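Below: protein 1.
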Amino acid sequence: MPEKIESADKVGSVSTHRYEQIVAELRKIVEAQSRGQFTIGDYALEIEPMRDPRAQDRGEELFTVKASLFRLAEDIGLSYYSVRTARWTSSRWPAEHRQASVSFTVHRILASIENEQERFAAILNPPAKRGRWTPDEANRRVGHQVQRPVTAQEKVSAIHTLAKDEEVAAVVTGDLLRRPTVVAQVRTEDRVSAVHTLVEDENVAAAVTGDLLKRPTVVAQVRQEDRVRAVEELTRDEHVAATVTTGLLRRPAVAFKAMSDDTARHQVNHAQVERGRQAREHFEETSPVAPAVKRIDRTVEFLDLITACHAFVAACGRVVPGLRDRQLGEDERVIIHENIARVRATLDWIETAVDTGKVDVDGELARLLQGE
């Protein structure tokens, strides 16, 4: 009756002792196969020696390298790839540097080490953990993907390989994003990149943006320049912009800061003048008492003009004496002369309006009045 073997002492369906016997036998076979592979490679090298990849093929040659190796492969019943690989591997391992105890597969993997001395030294120094080379250890040595990933990086590389297909990658990504513990470990820049990709559709982007803007804690973390840009984009519609601006200008601190900007203040003043002009035109067109009021307006305009002239003369009377014995700089003189030119042009305009009633402003005068 056969002896019962404990599962802990078995490998597969055989005992540990029997397994070791099988391994010893197979190693002999692998050594023989390796010698056979190197023999094929050596003969292929004899038929077609390795060439400098930068060299041009000679026109007088009867066969190209591929044609020769393909013919050899067919004549011995192997694939072209097998013959080509054996030839290349043999070229990387001169006979004196081949190791009988190391498989041809390991020789082929380590053959990708470019430096010869490094390559020949590597095969003599297998990983200490196992004491001998395996295909996976050889792949780790040269930086290739392993068949049985162990480290986190190796597993990541394996997943990337399996997910090269776009549909597979999409399914895997969707599954992973449903795991909060996984999402929590994703780097911030990768999350941002993923969100950008997911919201490439304008409708999706609009919906997501709307939801995010309802979260004060999110808005609080947005950079100031991005907030400004967002407000500008959101207020492109004139009605929306007017509503938002009205609400903001009701806040004293905001209104004060806004009016500190010369352009903004000028636009507000211009808007007030324009609003008054439109109201006046509407009044003149619709009110039955407009003619009488218009006569009063002319008197008011006369008084306003006299007041403006008086204010200008009085201001100059106060300021100019202060220039006594003071030498202005070149830049200061240029600025004052420019303003004097504007004053002269304005006075000419006043004289024309008073004498002729024409208040039209030509292009040159308009540029002077605007400081251009």
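Below: protein 2.
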Amino acid sequence: MSIDFVALDVETANRHRGSVCSVGAVRVRDGRVIERFATLVRPPVPGFEPMNVRIHGIREPDVVDAPTWPAVHRTLVDLVRDDVVVAHNASFETSALRQACVASGIPAAPFGVLCTRRLAKAHLVLGDYRLTSVTTHLGLGPFTHHDALQDATAAARIVLALAGIAGVDTTAELVSTPARP
């Protein structure tokens, strides 16, 4: 399988999407994970809300010495380069990236994006299309949900599994493969 992409996930500190406090990314080359990147982030929109902390367990003291969003964004741009970015519920992830850039006063990178939730809807028949539901259906094993690196890895594994089922070698072919009947 010659499929290449970068899977990405973020966690936010509060209800503002620009409050990115954690990032995980997985680079896939020729259908294999070749690089992983994970970091906590000092949120460009400060403040941790209890609901968000309950979801991911990251607290304000955890990010005191973390890099700022502009530094993390530069690392992501270098990691992604010209690849398509894959994310589960990609509209949230891309909105968080853009809003963190706005809050930091930097231009957002124009990543091409592919949503694994939409791909799963196109290729599978499930009761729901949450990340954990899709990975369970595909037999991809357990992972720690809302850990940015593990969620990014799960999204990567979904793309690889769906590409295998569809018998395709690129993300473009996966998108253009006829959907389920």
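Residues 50 and 79 are 32 Å apart (CA to CA).
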